Every structure is written in C-alpha cells, then in structure tokens.
Amino acid sequence: MKFGGLVWANLRRRKIRTLLTLLSILVAFVLFGYLSAIRQALAQGVDVAGADRLVVRHKVSIIQFLPENYESQIEQIPGVAEAVHATWFGGIYQKPSNFFPQLPVKPEEYLRMYPEFLLSAEEKARWLETRTGAVVGRATAERFGWKVGDRVPIQATIWTHGGGKKTWEFDIVGIYDGAEQGTDTTAFLFRWDFFDEARDWGRGEVGWYVVRVADPDQAVAVARRIDEEFANSPAETKAETEGAFVQAFAEQVGNIGAIMIAILAAVFFTILLVAGNTMAYSVRERTGELAVLKAVGFTDGQVLGLVLAEALALASLGGLLGLGLGWFLISLGDPTHGALPIFYFPSRDIVIGAVLVIALGVAAGILPALQAGRLRIADALRRL
Amino acid sequence: MSEAAFSPPGPASPGERPELAVAEGVEKEYRTGAGTLGVLRGVSLTVHEAELVAVVGASGVGKSTLLHVLGALDRPTAGRVLFRGEDLFARSDAELTRFRRHEVGFVFQLYNLLADFSALENAMLPALVQRRPAAEARRLAEEALREVGLTERSSHRPGELSGGEQQRVGIARGIVTDPTLILCDEPTGDLDRKSGDEVLDLLQALNRQHKKTIIMVTHDPHAAAWASRRLYLDKGQLSTEPVV
Predict the structure, then answer these.
(1) Is the Cβ of A300 closer than 8 Å to some Cβ of chain B?
(2) 0.80 surpassed by pTM
(3) Looking at beta carbons, which residues of chain B come within 8 Å of A305?
(4) How far is CA A354 from CA A63, A226, A364, in A?
(5) Under CATH, what is the fold of the domain B2-239?
(6) pLDDT per residue as tens, chain B (244 positions)
(7) SS (H, E, C) A308-328
(8) How far is B46 from chain A (nearest CA, A)?
(9) Chain A residues within 8 A of B61 when measuring between CB atoms
(10) Segments making up each domain of chain B, as ranges
C-alpha cells in the first residue's frame, strides 16, 4: 500500500456517490466536447481562412450582385495579386434539408485561389474538358454516395435556365479533399461559363469576389483601396478579410462563442458544486481517520495533498473519460447528418478541456483540503 | 499542582531508570461558548523508561487530554513537557510531527483503523509515513502482527475482525516503528472483559519483555491493575491515591 492506495481507497469507499459524481463530471466534459465541435462547425472556415484572402461583396448585402467586370478592375488595384469570383447557386438535391453550397466558378482560377482544395491533375483536366462538369468535396460526396461519373440533378431555387427550367444536371468529374482537418469539403463547384450562358437572367453578374493580396500585412489597406475604387458606383463594395467575412457569416445566429461559454460556465459551476460537495462530505466523514493519519506522522501538507489528490483523481477520471468519450462520439461524425459538415473536436479545445479537468479538481478540492490540513488532531479525536 | 511518582512492585524501581517523559505543571484550557473550561490544572508527572503507567479517572476528567499533550497531539495552555530532558513544546509543529512519527505509538479506544485496508496494510502505515521502503514496511508490519498474534488474520480488513482483534491490529500499528513511548487511550474501553484482558496481557508483555514505556489512560480499575504504577486524575489534578 502506498499513498496512492489511500486516494484510491477513499474514492472506492462510497461507490455510489463516487460513481454519480464521476458521471456528472463525465457528462459535463462530453458536453464540452460537443459544444466545442458545434462551435467549430458553425464557425467553419474561420480558423482555416486564408490570411492573404479578402472577400469583396456588395456593400448593401451579399444577395446583391456585383458586375463581372470588377474582376479586372480589382486586379489593377495596388496590392492585389489575383481576384476570382463566385456566386451562390442555392439549389436543392432531392429535398431542401440536403443542404450544401453550390457555386459556379472559373475552375483554374478558383483552384489556384484555394490551394487547400486538393484535386488530382486528371480530375482537373476532366473538369476543364467538361462544360457540365462539377467537382464535389469529399464530405458531400460521401454524404450522398456520389462518385466520379455520376450525373446529379439539382433543382434551382434562384437560377432557372432554358426558359424557366429548374433542373440543372451536372456530371461529377472529380472529388476534392481538404488539405487541413478544418477545410470545408462540402462545396459543389461547377463551371461559371456553363452557368452564365445557360441561366435565364443576371448574365454578367457575380455574387462576390475573392481577392488574394500580395502582402497579408497590407490586407486591411488593400480592402480599403478596393472599396474606394468602387465608391459612388452603382454597385459599391464591402471588402474584408476572409476570416472576418466567415466570422460575420457564422454570427448571423448570434455570438456563438459567447453563447457556448455561457452554457459551459453554467455547466461547470454546477459540476464544481457537485464535486466540491462530494469532497466536503468525504473529508467530514473521515475526520477521525485524518486525525489518526496526523497522529502517526502525516504532516499538515501531506493531509492537504492527500485530499487534493483525491479531488484531482476524481476530476481527472471523470473529466478525461468524458473528453475521451466526447472525442469518440464526435469522431463518429455529424449527428445532424449534414447540417454540420465540419464536425470535429479541435485539438486546441482538447487541451483546454484537460486544463479545465485540473482546474475543476483543484477548485473542488482546495477548500476541503485546506480544512483537512488545518485539522487539529486532539479536537478531531475528541469528536469521535 | 500535584507530583505523582511511586515505586511499582518489581525488580527495578523507576528511579533507577532514566526519565523518559516529564510533565511540569501542565495546564490545559478550552474556550467554550460558556467561557473557559480548565481540564488540566497543573499536572506534573514523571515517567521512566520501561514503565507501564496507568492514569485512572472517570469520564471527562481530562485523561485523554493529558495523553494528547504527552504525545504532542495538542499543546498545553501552560507548563512544560520534557522528553528525555528536552522541552517538547519548544519545538515547531513540523518537529512535533517528526517526534510523533519516530518516538510515539498511539493506541485508540475505537481502534481507528482504516476500514478499506487489511490488518497488514494498517500496520504498515506508520512505517510508510517514515518513508521506509514498502518491502521493509511490510516486513516490520508482519513482525508486529506476529507479536500481537494476528499473523493468520493479516489479510483481513477491520470489518472482518472482532473488537479484540482490531485492537491488537491497533497495537501492531502502534509498535511497528519501534517507538520509545506507547500511549494508549482506553485500550479496553470498547471490549468485553475477555478481549480486554488479552489486550492488557499484550501491553504488559510489550512492557516486560520488550521494555516498552507505556502510558495508558483508563476509567477501569481492573485494566489499571495491569500497570506497574497507577495514578489518579480528578478535577484536573493528578494523585497517587484514588479519589473517594
């Protein structure tokens, strides 16, 4: 028997109480994992947004269009390396709940702008050869079981073609992967020239521009120059970094981060009370035993350490199991089957979770530990 | 203040042996809601090496308090306790902890064993606190359990032992580090007569065969008869004669 045995024995003493406390902590950390993954999913792209990319949209709203000829004008602005446009197609595959973004783009320029979209040279060549060709991200391809060679019908909600026809058919010529864990692989990209020629209205108009700046440190200045270039024109622009754009998009439903923190704060405060209560009871009912330990030579510090170690063991066991279980469940994939395509437990949040485990253990155990450390042997023995 | 010392029957008188523990005018007061309560009122006592001394008194007269002071579990309000001539309470709390760890073994009325550990593990505890290697602590605990006649029950937990057996484990825990002084607080107070006598026999054997110095407090004159010297505590005062 070593002192670790004392900690373990104390945890086993009231098995039901320990188990219930462990479960409370475990559930809290599973919830922490899920909220982290959801926050990451809702803010998808913020973390992987290119620091050297700007998004330029209509000043009034992103649903207002910009002229296609802005591209060449933007590329003339000092500090701009390249510009490419994209447009929101907003189509439906089979049913409205099967949401995924579809964008008509210029293949070569777009893939150059987004090097994190990994497409084989063969697939890229096939895309350039096929006017109705589309490349789709791995997540969406797996979601619908699509493979190269499939013909996919998409129902338009905005863009009709051929005199009012809503159904567009695309040939899948490639499936792209993401270079990073957080890279969005849900997009369905098809050729701009095919789209622009076929659509019934709005020819020559695009949704927004993505601009690569030559020097990321100058991104804000370049954005200002772009907006100045089109000031007082019929289609004024709002240029911002891609990260800010994605963040603003994500926060349409509110400040996700603040909401998550508020929920987690409430959960952890409750768990702190539960774990603290368990430790306080545990020390209270072991007053005599702690007094005996001191009588046989335990120092105040050792008794304090013993109780603190017990609290840390309780928090670590429940917390790490919770983080592990959360990681496992999250790795099974998007629980909504499509609404949260980028769904993973960020490693940064796993580290934060581990720190929270330790903080919870210390916070729950420190007061009972101090009480135990200060316990006067004679007083405690007299109370037996 | 009272001075209590007389020669017990036996081959060697205490005066011929070195003094081990000396209390000089020890007072102990407690603050309560109703005011200050004086429990020990100038107790003086000399215990020589290899003595078995019984302090006898009714419940609430301060027997346990005296034992706690002698064992450095509690500081006196006034007076001194000398251990081998050195003032115990001139030491820091950390030094008093070391003193308890190396010099004193405690035996409690309610045994106070760790319920989740075996007899062997309970007996090992003080040796582990002394930072002895686990194997050595185990060997010492096995010897101590053999001394108290519990070798066969070493793997049993307290809940699986009788009261007398639990107290013998308590004694094994008290002697495992070979302390100079063993302090027993009502060691038979929770036992039937037969089990109590076995425990007293054991304490007497430790005193006579191993020359252990033992101070035992008890309310029971029968238990006190095992001691080589009896002192009587009443109203915070110690005397050599029972209070009528």
Answers:
(1) yes
(2) no
(3) none
(4) 43, 44, 15
(5) Rossmann fold (3.40.50)
(6) 333 333 333 444 555 788 999 999 999 998 888 888 888 999 999 999 999 999 999 988 899 999 999 999 999 999 999 999 999 999 999 999 999 999 999 999 888 898 888 999 999 999 998 989 989 999 999 999 999 999 999 999 999 999 999 999 999 999 999 999 999 999 998 888 899 999 999 999 999 998 999 999 999 999 999 999 999 999 888 988 776 6
(7) HHHHHHHHHHHHHHHHHHHHH
(8) 22
(9) none
(10) 2-239
